[in-house]
Amino acid sequence: MLPSPSALTALVLFTLLWPADARANSFPPPAPMKPEQVATADRALNRAAGARDRAVFRELLSPEVVFMAGELHRGRLAVLAIWQHLFDGKYDFRYEAETLEAEIAQSGEFGWAIGSVRTSFLRPGKTEPEVIDGHYLNLWTPDADGAWKLAYSGSLVVHPTLGAARDPRGGLMTAWPELADQLDADISLRWTPESRVRAASGDLAYTFGEYEASFTTTAEPGNASAASEAKGEGEADVSIESRVAGKGHFLAVWRKDPKGHWQLAGEGFTPPGIYGEQKP
Asked: N or C: which end of the chain has fewer CB within 10 A?
């Protein structure tokens, strides 16, 4: 049955008179992503670790999770294995962590969280626990059901010589000059990214990969004992170089500022595993 002429006229008038912007926005835009979504997942992970709740901890890990703790661990099973000593409870090991800041890409592909962490471990036969304070960087991604899972995790421990970075944002790019000053050495870095991901919304990005660090120290000509021992001579007018190299992995998270410039938001990495030493 065809509509009556009056009904057709009413439909045409409704279409023409309805504001164009209202017609275009008859469906509301998607709700903006809220950092609290990532912060909630991050706090849940911290609570599970502190309570030794292996089931909840496991559920919050992505199957392909990458964990940077001393060395690189890939995959959920590998990460659970290194946490097993905590879940077993055989020793007095305590873990306390607090989420300090969280951010999420407006397009929803990933988010990140930075937090503080304190671990204490009472070794057998000791009366006082060893307490270590530090920071961590976690990167979260949603699964097919929209649940947030931990994709990358790295501590912001710069190097055993420095211990934990005091500034949660004190990553490789800011920490190495300080390390060079402490060791009286020249340090060079080379980066090999494995993954580079920029959110479709263009507000956040992250890079994960391997870095190589070279440490070069020099004994000045005035150091007679070092120069003589190295050269087998009595003269001390030559400089002696010692070069040590190591490799590690890094995770850097970037955010775009209002002017469109990329700024480092946080960085986590493993200390460089020393693999070679050269002395002329």
From this structure: N
